[in-house]
Specification:
- With 107 residues, this protein is α+β, with helices and mostly antiparallel strands.
- Helices cover 25% and strands 46% of the residues.
- It contains two helices and eight strands.
- Strand 5 and strand 6 form a beta hairpin.
- The longest helix is centred in the last third of the chain and has 15 residues, at 71-85.
- The model has no long low-confidence stretch (mean pLDDT 90).
Length: 107
């Protein structure tokens, strides 16, 4: 088997602000995750406030050669990142927002 070459630096910091309509809140936010490994660093953080969901994602994965022996650990690192990025956000609609929504649909 051959080693895997990651031939470019993967580095990013992104902040997403999701504005919520009146009466809508996050019923459940995903869990924050921070990974520091021999393959790189990754973090995702979730917060809510002021009718807004905030998601901050940061990663830094350097150029590297992943040996066949290291590949299972690298795969685990990548899968943990994929799992973190696929976490659902559950929203809750309050009575007031539900009433506005149903009256708008009736019009």
């Amino acid at each position: 088997t051959y080693p895997m070459l990651l031939n470019s630096v993967l580095s990013e910091r992104t902040v997403f602000h999701l504005h919520l309509p009146d009466g809508v809140t996050a019923a459940a936010l995903p869990h924050d995750l921070v990974i520091n490994s021999e393959f790189g660093e990754y973090a995702v953080r979730f917060s809510e406030g002021n009718r807004q969901l905030n998601i901050t994602r940061e990663f830094n994965i350097p150029v590297q050669l992943v040996s066949a022996e290291q590949f299972p650990a690298f795969l685990d690192f990548a899968r943990r990142i994929d799992d973190a990025e696929r976490q659902p956000i559950t929203l809750s609609i309050g009575k007031e927002a539900a009433l506005k929504s149903s009256s708008s649909a009736a019009e």
